[in-house]
Design brief:
The complex is a heterodimer of chains A (about 325) and B (about 260). With about 325 residues, chain A is of the alpha/beta class. Chain A contains nine helices and 18 strands. The mean pLDDT of chain B is about 95. The chains are: A alpha/beta (about 325), B alpha/beta (about 260).
Chain lengths: ~325, ~260
């Protein structure tokens, strides 16, 4: 048997999209390996989740009722117990914040080689995993020479499984060692708020690391004012404290879908792209023609933003600030 | 108490570069402190400043060249540093997170810290796994992707915020000893002062080999190997405006007006 075990992810009552992407990736790998696809769902409304996860290609869904939300100490014990029970060839987990909060621990405990953040996988004599390095500037293939492997997949890289399936649903009981639970989730909080909701904007002028200095933010602010647009940013701008958190577009910020998104000095890291790829028209201004933002942009100006943005402000009748 | 901060020297790649076999040609690489680790160093130094008897030690897996980067951490307030390297590590083509965790675990055994801080991931390989692997290896508790830390030196519990996706933070209490992986934005890393840079010259960077840490040379054996490294094919079909900046801006303005953007 060369089975695959994928572990679904949910948060605050909802399965996350990546759970259905895991089904697609898991089915492909199970076909290549000639085994079954097992999907586990831990905690929360496991029966409701199991119904939703019953997609074409899933052979068995294992439900484990244990707590409402993710706790890595609990997940770790359960996934290890299930892995021991099923002895799959591949453990497939999401490359999410929570996935990375337990996948390395499980892999280490089970002595499985771990490859994270896969964007493609081929299963031949060995597992060949495609992943990125150096901030997406290069892609690599790593091969894993082992009988059993743990792998995390990047959200958004596999299409979600949609068609309904006929999986067997099986309850799995685990006795949790409470003494090993040494972390406690005490609550959640939505961040951001503030007076501006960038998710409402039709036109976003978004600024990234290329702006170099805090005082230069005035330049993109002036462009946003001139165009009647809303100002947003990529992560480094918020990390530097130059704009508040509610302006951040990306995986850990807001997902925006404006009519027009003008990315200024933004390279287009995958975490940022996750938040803005749904914009109707994407314009990039960046000196680096090979920046990943251009893979997504509809229009681009490969030039120095400090020359182009003042000219653009003037073209709309505004006055660029003196920097 | 003792805080151990795991820091990595990472390579930043220039916009234009060439690949030589399974690596980027050395002339296109610039070495620097890993961005996430800069925030971890700051978090450690802030704990040192908040407590009477807090020692902050940094640990790095890296060649002698990394001393320059380590000196920057020392200049920011880290008390002393350990750097692990030998010919086995030098000969290892692909240092995976398991090997890094094993090496760091040996340093944890040596140093017996109460708290280990590490960046969420490294800029270059972006595995994002070393901190949590290390925690499991040494039997510490952990929290990944921490963007807020409330901790009184000496306490048994650290209260952290973990940054989840979509603008949601999770509040978690973590029992010590623990490994926390630190997200960018948790604090504002300080610049090294001239005085700090001078003081850093006299601080200890202790070189250690795998043997000195009690590790067998096969700790670097890995089931994971790099077999290809290439520039991804560009998928860009963007229409690029050309000319002087003024001409480019005029074309872009025309497009934006067509898209309904009005001043």
């Amino acid at each position: 048997m060369s089975d695959i075990l994928a572990v679904a992810e949910h948060r605050r009552g909802d399965l996350r999209d990546v759970s259905f992407e895991l089904v697609t990736a898991g089915r492909d790998l199970a076909d290549a390996a000639g085994g079954d696809l097992h999907v586990a769902v831990i905690g929360g409304d496991v029966d409701g989740f199991a119904e939703e996860l019953n997609r074409e290609g899933v052979d068995t869904i294992h439900t484990i009722s244990e707590g409402e939300e993710f706790n890595h100490d609990v997940y770790t014990q359960i996934v290890e117990a299930l892995f021991d029970e099923l002895a799959p060839e591949l453990l497939l987990l999401p490359n999410t914040v929570n996935g990375l909060d337990y996948a390395p621990a499980v892999a280490n405990s089970l002595s499985l080689p771990l490859v994270t953040d896969a964007i493609d996988v081929e299963y031949g004599d060995e597992l060949a995993v495609t992943r990125e390095m150096y901030g997406s500037k290069v892609e690599t293939v790593v091969e894993v020479d082992a009988d059993r492997v743990a792998l995390t997949i990047r959200p958004g890289e596999w299409p979600p499984a949609e068609a309904t399936g006929d999986a067997e649903i099986s309850q799995f009981d685990v006795s949790i060692d409470e003494s090993a639970v040494r972390s406690t989730v005490t609550g959640f909080q939505e961040v951001g708020g503030g007076d501006v909701d960038i998710t409402d904007a039709d036109v976003l002028v978004s600024v990234g690391r290329g702006i170099e200095e805090e005082e230069n933010i005035a330049l993109v602010e002036a462009l946003a004012d001139t165009l009647g647009a809303t100002l947003s940013s990529s992560r480094p701008i918020v990390d530097n404290g130059w704009l508040p958190k509610n302006r951040q577009v990306g995986q850990s910020g807001k997902v925006v879908t404006p009519d027009v998104y003008i990315a200024i000095g933004i390279s287009g890291a995958v975490q940022h792209v996750a938040g803005m790829k749904g914009a109707d028209t994407i314009v990039a201004i960046n000196t680096d023609a090979s920046a990943p933002i251009y893979d997504l942009a509809d229009y681009g100006v490969v030039d120095d933003l400090f020359d182009v943005v003042p000219a653009l402000i003037e073209a709309f009748g505004g006055e660029p600030p003196a920097l | 108490m003792k805080v151990l901060v795991a820091v990595a020297e990472v390579a930043d790649v220039e916009d234009e570069f060439e690949i030589d076999g399974l690596a980027i040609d050395e002339q296109y690489l610039n070495y620097d402190l890993n961005e996430w680790d800069d925030y971890a160093v700051e978090a450690g130094v802030q704990l040192q400043e908040a407590g009477d008897d807090v020692e902050v030690v940094s640990v790095t897996i890296g060649p002698e060249r990394a001393d320059e980067t380590i000196r920057m951490a020392l200049a920011k307030g880290v008390d002393r540093a350990v750097r692990v390297w030998d010919e086995n590590l030098e000969a290892t083509e692909y240092l995976d997170s398991e090997t890094k965790a094993d090496v760091l675990a040996a340093v944890v055994e040596d140093e017996q810290p109460d708290l280990v801080l590490a960046g969420v991931q490294s800029d270059d390989t972006a595995f994002g796994a070393t901190g949590v692997s290390l925690a499991e290896e040494v039997g510490f508790e952990w929290a990944a992707v921490v963007n807020d830390l409330e901790y009184e030196p000496g306490s048994d519990i650290a209260s952290v915020h973990r940054e989840l996706e979509g603008g949601v933070e999770e509040f978690t209490d973590v029992e010590l000893p623990a490994v926390l992986t630190i997200q960018t934005g948790i604090n504002e890393p300080r610049y090294a002062s001239l005085r700090g840079i001078r003081q850093a010259q006299s601080k200890e960077i202790a070189p250690k080999t795998l043997d000195e840490l009690g590790l067998e040379s096969d700790v670097t054996d890995s089931a994971v190997s790099l077999t290809e490294l290439y520039e991804p094919e560009t998928e860009s079909d963007a229409t690029l405006f050309e000319g002087s900046p003024d001409e480019e801006a005029d074309q872009l303005a025309e497009l934006l007006r067509d898209e309904g953007v009005e001043a």
